[in-house]
Amino acid sequence: MHCQMQPATKCQALALTNIMHAAKGHWGYDPQDMEVYREHWKITPEMIEADPTLVILDKTRPIGFARIAKENTDTALLDHLFVLPEAHGNGYGAWLLEGAEEIAKRMQCSTLRLESDANAAPFYAHHGYHSTSNRPSAFKGARPIEHMQKDLTPQIHEIAQIDLNLDDANSWEFAEHNSEAIKENWKHLISQNPDLWDGKVLSLYQYALNQKRFSGKLVKIDYSAFLAWRDWGFPDRNARNLFGCTVLRSSQGHLIFGKMASHTATAGQVYAPGGNLDLNDITPSGKVDIFGSIARELEEETGFTLEHGELGEVLAVEDGPRLAIARVLTLQLTSDEISSKISHFNANQEKPELEEAVIVTSLADLTPHQVPPYARALTAHLLN
Predict the structure, then answer these.
(1) What is 3-151's CATH superfamily?
(2) What CA–CA distance (Å, rounded) separates 117 from 98?
(3) Of 237, 233, 162, whose CA–CA distance to 3 is shortest?
(4) Other CB atoms within 10 A of residue 240 CB
(5) CB atoms near residue 52 (< 10 Å)
(6) 340-380 pLDDT, tens per residue?
(7) Which of 47, 56, 52 lies closest to 6 in space, CA to CA?
(8) 218: phi then psi, degrees, rounded to nearest 5
(9) Which of 93, 83, 102, 221 lies closest to 152 in space, CA to CA?
(10) What are the domain boundaries of the chain?
(11) Treating both helix axes as pointing N-terminal to C-terminal, what angle do 92-106 and 373-382 enclose, rounded to 10 degrees?
(12) Which pTM does this prediction carry?
């Protein structure tokens, strides 16, 4: 049975408290100090309700958790991250940390900070956190508590060459090991949204970025497996959701994003037109044509083609489990004209993929919307 990472519920407060106490006690601190710690440090239902809290479940048993709080406009605090001692060494801590970073980015924070026990500081340093200061520990004989933080801004790279290949000899182990649970998850999804379709898509499992060259290998997977991976908190941390998108730019320099329609798997989210790679993007030689995918998705969602404008830079955006290849297309039309044409195109579609076009003149225009971190980073980069 697979493990899942999901939002904690208030009824799990005691279980999370027990995980915290067991994990802290694992370091061998003075028994009297631990008694004081257990008395004063607890996870309450109110804490779970107040701030995002992630839990990893092994079947129904909580084995680790993380709690995140927004401190100010730019900074989030990783308030807790603990894993049961008997579950150490399985990558659960790194998984929770990546989940916490995702939540912080969704909060529009560019920095995640934490206070680390000296025993855990090397773990955080390994994952890109650096110390800014320290303070004495409350435990007898313990080394200082480290104040640490990390910049969460998605990394953007200019790309001049792309070389993507299909690996037909391999399959996705995550999907094979969790096939029954994936089927159950799919049944649940289509009960809520019958318009979903379980076709074949491509998943990136190996890639390199070197001197403006992006290369990678992909495997064929079922869309249902992809959605389970997404819904369970990206448990296979080696996989990446590679996709292409077109950033439409108007003659005024504004960006035009789309709000996804209610019948899509990303309903309500706002980002540049694009989508998953699929079997249509595989060439006879086994290459994967991401530019072909970009052109197809643009036309399907907006009615525009690449020939309608001037092609600009190609950017790769690394954003945790997501990796976007974005191509800029400048149209000699105003923002309102582009939006109007997209609305007219959608009015003639039986089930348009976009609910509406969203004109982006600054980051502030994205505030009312649900926007993936990579799309926000692209906006900051292109409108800077």
Answers:
(1) Gcn5-related N-acetyltransferase (GNAT) (3.40.630.30)
(2) 19
(3) 233
(4) 21
(5) 21
(6) 999 999 999 999 999 999 999 999 999 999 999 999 999 99
(7) 56
(8) -130, 155
(9) 102
(10) 3-151, 155-382
(11) 50
(12) 0.90
